[in-house]
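A common beginner's mistake is to predict each chain separately and then try to dock the pieces by hand. The better habit, illustrated here, is to supply every component at once so that their relative placement is modeled jointly.
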Amino acid sequence: MPPTARERVRAELTAEITAAARRQLAEVGAAALSLRAVARELGMASSALYRYFPSRDDLLTRLIIDGYDALGAAAEAADDPAAPPRERWLAVCRAVRAWAREHPHEYALLYGSPVPGYAAPRDTVPAASRVGVALGRVLGDAARAGALPDTDGERDPGLVSEEAVAVLGGEHPALDEAVRVRALLAWSALYGTLSFELFGHFAGSVQDADRYFDRAMGELAGLIGL
Amino acid sequence: MPPTARERVRAELTAEITAAARRQLAEVGAAALSLRAVARELGMASSALYRYFPSRDDLLTRLIIDGYDALGAAAEAADDPAAPPRERWLAVCRAVRAWAREHPHEYALLYGSPVPGYAAPRDTVPAASRVGVALGRVLGDAARAGALPDTDGERDPGLVSEEAVAVLGGEHPALDEAVRVRALLAWSALYGTLSFELFGHFAGSVQDADRYFDRAMGELAGLIGL
DNA sequence: TCGATGTGAGAGCAGTGCTCTCTGTCGAGA
DNA sequence: TCTCGACAGAGAGCACTGCTCTCACATCGA
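With all components supplied together, the output reads:
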């Protein structure tokens, strides 16, 4: 059956709340996100918000999932399956960086310190893995196309879990443990680089952030074998 | 002249405050660190704390500097100048990880999302660079000992700043732009790996965190040429 | 000894997340 | 068509936060 009028207006208001919260998030950051301020912006009593989100943490969860989804969508959109693997890897990395620079507070919410007393619920996992899946697709396609150089078949099983294997390109002879570990390392290095840039840890070390990022991601591509 | 009795008791109480704050930090995290709770623990009025720290942010700054110093000291203590470069690199990385795992909240305070509305003052910079300096010493010693393989002398000046060059081993023919960029990348990759581990982003991907970390840091050492 | 300085306490302000109660409205079933 | 129950919003209130101000007291140097 179609949604009733009440359900429609409820969905609308829910969307308005998350939109206002996202706006506030971009302005003051997650830690300073205030339910009352959101209510003020919408011209309603703070207590009324609790009809839509049982707690501030639930509102944060909504924002986290939305953030992961937006970031994942940006990464997927930047991936051109027809391009050479190395270019695909660089394109996805650049897209992640572009999104992070456009939404620094959301990035911090996703990849910065966890909010104390708040544990991300299971619902966030699928959205959170989208970027990893996108990178894994590049890896898997490269392996299937024979674009990954043969390794010495190094074996060190038990380092990377089954789930990660599935994400990181699936089973393929060219994707041995060594390649997967490097891919995982490159993945976290991407976020290490971004965090350092956005959180100001490069301080004066890096002159031209754009060029440094491209060089760094190129090094990582080389490390994986792309 | 010797410190007066007043100065002595003042210094003592200041130390007690930071100790209580650090204890609270370890329990509830930076975002939930409450001045009033610290005061309660010390059995004094919250307003009295403001005689010692003009604001909560100043107390946080103190904790941040102390944290950087403790982390830096751990890194320096783990470095044995007589060991081979690769072992030195791994030892420092392991020490950083060990400290981070023992003080996750402090690590999050140092390398997680910046506290909104709070800009780290200049005073934190020297303490913050200690780990970088320790890693840079390993790199410089390796270069001077001829332990770094010759690169193709790739030149891409302007990527890494003068200050970073000074930290990353100083001037040496074996330390060209390529090596420095890789060192910087490895440095941020170390923190990317730690953040992923501590903030739970590896989720189910990594089975044995200890072994994975060693492998990953080994890959980074190889990337630099150690 | 006296005045300047440092110190702590208490009250109070504006803000927070959250709960509870009360009122009004809307819509589906009798 | 009427009624009753589910739902939505408002307001007051609780316990908490960082921070400021004033007031009383202790200490210490001239």
